[in-house]
């Protein structure tokens, strides 16, 4: 009788074992679970992006701006909004753009995660909503989205010479004219000669001595970035930047490093590809062409789960704006933007916008 009952016993044991495996596997194998949380970039999306980038680099690289025949052309700033939620601070940004007094000095491009529904005030209706794909934190999809924004901006207007990437949690700290003048000089004197210069500097944080550098380097596994990216060439920095057009084109042409940075991560706690790819690429390709600091102020003093300090309504004041503007380094510059702000900050920010934020 014992032999005949053995298959039933074995089957029951196997069933119970599988049950407990499925029940406790997420706790036992967190890296495996985390890998499945990362959205993959499909081959079709990759091909679509490559076609877009090729068109942008062809147009942007061959544009003869000085011979376009435009009367008194002005260089422009392309503001690139990368978001996966509503643009809560759209009213504040509207005042920022209105403070320019000249709508011909900027363009606005928006990449909205397809799963997100956003409200569209009148000024945002006129913005350029680029064809978007799904994005997620700790995945290379954010790199793709930033590149997609730059490509669309280059194709749309050859006079876009700076590309400022911001998020739904970012706010301006100065008037538009302050930002524009800091990048290009006085709008009344910006001329064709400036449009044809090739040495514009990019403003992006590039760090080589961060305490978490090694963990981020091996987030995809030991040796995963080799041989293209040795450890001494790996850099980290802020996700948000202001890139000159020559560097935006460089980013869109690049393929070798992208093949490494789009690999899935094994350690999501140390994996932020969008904070690694751009600083590493620009540091390797043109180390003297960037400022190595960002123009977006972030408060990391009490970060939680990789997120910076989130400002709330009670913290908003003229003193905060003045503090956020100041550089926290020995370099003499002023921050243009700041993050991260909760939706309840909109009302007090609007109340001080004209008298404080846009009064430089």
UniProtKB/TrEMBL annotation:
Keywords linked to the UniProt accession: Glycoprotein, Glycosyltransferase, Membrane, Transferase, Transmembrane, Transmembrane helix
Membrane-spanning intervals of the chain: 6-29
Cell compartments where the protein resides: Membrane
GO molecular function, one term: glycosyltransferase activity
GO cellular component: membrane
Pfam families the record matches: Branch
Superkingdom field: Eukaryota
Primary location: membrane
PANTHER family listed in its UniProt record: CORE-2/I-BRANCHING BETA-1,6-N-ACETYLGLUCOSAMINYLTRANSFERASE FAMILY PROTEIN-RELATED, CORE-2_I-BRANCHING BETA-1,6-N-ACETYLGLUCOSAMINYLTRANSFERASE FAMILY PROTEIN
Name of the protein this chain belongs to: Beta-1,6-N-acetylglucosaminyl transferase-like
Organism field: Hibiscus trionum
């Amino acid at each position: 009788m014992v032999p005949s009952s053995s298959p039933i016993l074995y089957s029951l044991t196997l069933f119970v074992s599988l049950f407990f495996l499925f029940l406790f596997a997420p706790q036992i194998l967190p890296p495996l679970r985390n890998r499945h949380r990362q959205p993959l970039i499909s081959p079709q999306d990759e091909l679509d992006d490559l076609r877009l980038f090729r068109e942008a680099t062809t147009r942007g690289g061959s544009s003869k701006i000085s011979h376009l025949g435009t009367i008194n052309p002005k260089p422009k700033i392309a503001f690139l909004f990368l978001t996966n939620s509503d643009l809560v601070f759209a009213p504040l940004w509207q005042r920022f753009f209105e403070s320019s007094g000249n709508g011909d000095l900027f363009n606005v491009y928006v990449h909205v995660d397809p799963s997100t529904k956003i409200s569209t005030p009148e000024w945002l209706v006129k913005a350029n909503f680029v064809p978007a794909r799904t994005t997620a934190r700790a995945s290379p999809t954010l790199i793709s989205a930033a590149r997609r924004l730059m490509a669309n901006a280059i194709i749309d207007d050859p006079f876009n010479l700076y590309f400022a990437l911001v998020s739904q949690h970012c706010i301006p700290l100065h008037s538009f004219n302050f930002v524009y003048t800091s990048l290009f000089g006085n709008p009344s004197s910006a001329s064709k000669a400036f449009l044809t210069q090739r040495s514009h500097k990019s403003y992006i944080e590039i760090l080589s001595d961060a305490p978490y550098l090694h963990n981020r380097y091996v987030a995809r596994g030991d040796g995963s970035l080799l041989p293209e990216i040795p450890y001494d060439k790996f850099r980290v920095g802020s996700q948000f930047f202001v890139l000159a057009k020559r560097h935006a084109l460089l980013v869109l042409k690049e393929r070798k490093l992208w093949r490494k940075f789009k690999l899935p991560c094994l350690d999501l706690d140390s994996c932020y590809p969008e904070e690694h790819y751009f600083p590493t690429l620009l540091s390797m390709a043109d180390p003297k062409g960037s400022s190595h600091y960002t123009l977006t102020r972030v408060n990391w003093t009490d970060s939680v789960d990789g997120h910076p300090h989130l400002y709330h309504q009670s913290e908003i004041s003229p003193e905060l704006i003045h503090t956020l503007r100041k550089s926290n380094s020995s370099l003499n510059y002023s921050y243009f933007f700041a993050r991260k702000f909760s939706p309840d900050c909109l009302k007090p920010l609007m109340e001080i916008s004209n008298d404080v934020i846009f009064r430089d």
